[in-house]
Design a protein that fits this description.
160 residues, 4 helices, alpha+beta, single chain
Length: 160
């Protein structure tokens, strides 16, 4: 599970920003999503993440606390140790999160966010359905928007 956390930090947030200083699995619980036909186990954890460089998690533009929480299976309330003016290299975050795993029928457990998307689900992601687009598509769109320079109009509140 610690490897899954580091992988999510590096791929879903920012590579090389955090290292896991401490990791402890705190429990698990089975789940069943009858609507989507998925079942498995939720695994809960506590971890301390050390900043490898200075970074501000309260930025309006860029990857922030909400993005981090989503990437690591936590809530914003489950992350402690961030500072409004930014964190410095060496600072620690304490996080409480959850990962979900399902069994592939051959005895191998796979993280649900790492599972390949069936072709029918992929067509729904692009066209949308009554539940909206998938989390991966939304995250990809958000990253693309954040990569664009902000538009600032002279005389507007954003010009400040």
């Amino acid at each position: 599970m610690a490897q899954d956390l580091q992988g999510r930090l590096d791929t879903h947030f920012q590579s090389g920003l955090f290292t896991i200083a401490d990791f402890k699995r705190t429990g698990s619980a089975p789940f069943r999503d009858l609507e989507n036909g998925v079942g498995g186990v939720h695994s809960y954890y506590d971890a301390q993440l050390q900043f490898l460089q200075d970074y501000g998690l309260t930025q309006w533009q860029g990857l922030n606390l909400g993005t981090l929480a989503y990437a690591i299976g936590a809530t914003e309330a489950g992350i402690d140790g961030f500072h409004a003016r930014g964190n410095s290299r060496g600072d620690m975050l304490r996080v409480h999160g959850r990962f979900s795993y399902s069994e592939d029928g051959r005895g191998t457990w796979q993280a649900l966010d790492q599972e390949p998307v069936p072709s029918a689900a992929m067509s729904q992601e692009t066209g949308g359905d009554r539940h909206g687009r998938g989390a991966k598509a939304i995250l990809a769109d958000t990253r693309a928007l954040l990569a664009q320079p902000p538009e600032v109009r002279p005389g507007s509140g954003n010009a400040i």
